[in-house]
């Protein structure tokens, strides 16, 4: 219930109590005209109270609407002081401004750190990568040395992927990705299936995308949603058996539309499921742990719930529950 | 083609310059923004490769300044920052392309050639090899009048091998070319080998594929006469 309504109801209740006290203490019976006068007066009082409380709390509504409701990042915060003659609200506004300013500084520091880490970590990797390229391409490099360098290049690629995924996680957590696109999930799925077509064909996997349905996600980031779906479906293909199947279906969970990905692979371990569905677990840069963390972080960034059906003994059933939809 | 490499990391600049010189480019290296700024006022370049993270200059400012000074050159941003905002800003300021470190030098070269063709309205000529004709515009391969049915990936692999003929291409370089960031990093991944096996099988129906050599433990090489 609105604060203004609560204040005016409280005032009315007090006045009713006073009126009841007066009525009980009155020595003679009260004429019926008095009841009408009292009722009309009380009604007027409620209206005046409500109007005044509404007027008093206007700065609070502005504070919520203009400053707090639309904020996804401290950088978007409106630091202009609130215009009000009420000292308490002025102080509240001042404190919120201070708090957001501190948060803004922390976010800026983290952004600077990610940019710095990105440069400092990826530049040496790039140097090594290019040096290996040049040595392998050199006609004078013996084949057995080239073969060992190829192994090293593979290791370097894994290192580079881990660094890039960790930086991606940091950027998402730090809200460095814009979330201002309206995206058809079906069209992203078609892009993903196009990118994976040769891997699907090589393993002779039966891929089924249920027709005639779509989910249009609003306030979304296309490249992140693509990364999430290409990882989920890529895993379903990569860890599947030859001639297995992957089915992408649509459904509902309460009033939320859902996307399901079912495969005939070996299923996920409880640890992998926890990595995919639970926030706050320490990042494990081994196996596909970090990839699962990236999926989980992107889904949380988009308010998409992820669940894995634990009853699936063979294969995996992953359900994505969408919230921000058109 | 004259190329200016603006890169503060000496080893990185050296490797890029070494590679580009080998494929026929003339390269100058500037280690700071100031040095780059001086060079663009003194020399004419066809390509300027700019690292955004310079110690003394804002990379975007340098890009704007060099575009003002040499608007006929092509600009390629090389950076460790994977932020989409930076990419868009660079492209909006007039850069022709944007590559995120670490990248393959072959990929850098391929993009430079593509920019050059785009800028001068050129089309890539047909590639004739071992009796086959690869038409890059139509993305088709013919042997005489008969078309060789290749998948998208097989075509891409063949095209890349022909572009860098007589050079060993590692499985990683081939995988990154066709899948980009989705290239598998597992040592057990054999997608490239399967594609190459299928490619050989399809070409062998028409003519010998002895020119397509497997370099054990390294990758593949197309042993063909150099392009004229």
UniProtKB/TrEMBL annotation, chain B:
Name the SMART domains on file.
REC, Trans_reg_C
Q: Where are the transmembrane segments?
A: none
What keywords does the record list, in alphabetical order?
Answer: DNA-binding, Phosphoprotein, Transcription, Transcription regulation, Two-component regulatory system
Superkingdom:
Bacteria
Give me the positions annotated for DNA binding: 124-224
4-aspartylphosphate modification sites are 51
- The UniProt record lists the OmpR/PhoB-type domain at 124-224
Quote any Pfam family the record assigns: Trans_reg_C
* Keyword Phosphoprotein attached: yes
Organism this protein belongs to: Fibrella forsythiae
Q: Which PANTHER family match?
A: REGULATOR OF RPOS (PTHR48111), TWO-COMPONENT RESPONSE REGULATOR ORR33 (PTHR48111:SF1)
What name is this protein filed under?
Response regulator transcription factor
Boundaries of every Response regulatory domain copy: 2-116
């Amino acid at each position: 219930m609105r604060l203004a309504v609560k204040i005016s109801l409280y005032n009315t209740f007090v006045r009713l109590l006073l009126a009841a006290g007066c009525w009980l203490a009155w020595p003679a019976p009260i004429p019926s005209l008095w009841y009408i006068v009292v009722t009309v007066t009380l009604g007027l009082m409620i209206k005046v109270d409500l109007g005044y409380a509404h007027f008093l709390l206007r700065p609070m509504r502005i504070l919520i609407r203009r400053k707090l409701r639309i904020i996804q990042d401290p950088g978007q915060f409106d630091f202009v002081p609130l215009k009000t003659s009420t000292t308490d609200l002025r102080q509240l506004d001042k404190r919120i401004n201070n708090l957001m300013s501190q948060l803004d500084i922390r976010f800026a520091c983290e952004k600077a750190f990610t940019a710095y880490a990105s440069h400092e970590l990826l530049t040496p990797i790039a140097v090594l990568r290019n040096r290996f390229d040049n040595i392998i391409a050199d006609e004078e490099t013996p084949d057995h040395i080239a073969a060992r360098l190829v192994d090293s290049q593979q290791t370097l690629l894994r290192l580079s992927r881990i660094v890039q995924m960790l930086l991606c996680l940091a950027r998402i957590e730090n809200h460095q990705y814009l979330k201002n696109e309206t995206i058809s999930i079906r069209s992203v799925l078609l892009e993903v299936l196009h990118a994976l077509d040769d891997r699907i064909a090589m393993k002779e996997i039966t891929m089924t995308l249920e027709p005639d349905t779509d989910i249009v996600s609003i306030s979304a980031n296309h490249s992140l949603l693509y990364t999430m779906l290409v990882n989920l479906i890529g895993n379903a293909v990569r860890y599947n058996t030859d001639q297995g199947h992957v089915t992408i279906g649509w459904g509902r969970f309460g009033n939320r539309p859902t996307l399901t990905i079912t495969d005939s692979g070996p299923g996920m371990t409880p640890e992998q499921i926890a990595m995919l569905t639970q926030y706050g677990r320490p990042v494990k840069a081994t196996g596909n742990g970090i990839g699962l963390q990236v999926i989980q972080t992107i889904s949380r960034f988009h308010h998409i719930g992820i669940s894995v059906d634990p009853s699936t003994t063979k294969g995996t059933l992953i359900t994505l529950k969408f919230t921000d939809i058109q | 083609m004259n190329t200016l490499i603006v890169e503060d990391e000496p080893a990185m600049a050296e490797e890029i310059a070494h590679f580009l010189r080998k494929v026929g480019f003339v390269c100058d290296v500037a280690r700071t923004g100031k040095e780059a700024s001086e060079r663009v006022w003194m020399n004419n370049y066809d390509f300027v490769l700019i690292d955004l993270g310079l110690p003394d200059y804002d990379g975007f400012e340098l890009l704007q300044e060099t575009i003002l000074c040499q608007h006929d050159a092509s600009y390629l941003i090389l950076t460790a920052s994977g932020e989409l905002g930076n990419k868009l800003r660079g492209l909006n300021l007039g850069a022709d392309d944007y590559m995120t470190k670490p990248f393959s030098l072959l990929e850098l070269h391929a993009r430079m050639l593509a920019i050059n063709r785009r800028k001068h309205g050129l089309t890539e000529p047909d590639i004739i090899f071992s009796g086959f004709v690869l038409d890059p515009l139509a993305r088709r391969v013919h042997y005489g009048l008969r078309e060789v049915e290749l998948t998208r990936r097989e075509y891409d692999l063949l095209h890349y091998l022909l572009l860098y003929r007589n050079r060993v291409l590692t499985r990683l370089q081939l995988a990154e070319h066709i899948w980009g960031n989705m290239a598998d990093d597992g040592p057990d991944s054999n997608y490239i080998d399967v594609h190459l096996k299928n490619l050989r099988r399809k070409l062998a129906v028409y003519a010998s594929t002895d020119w397509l050599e497997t370099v054990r433990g390294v990758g593949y090489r197309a042993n063909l006469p150099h392009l004229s």
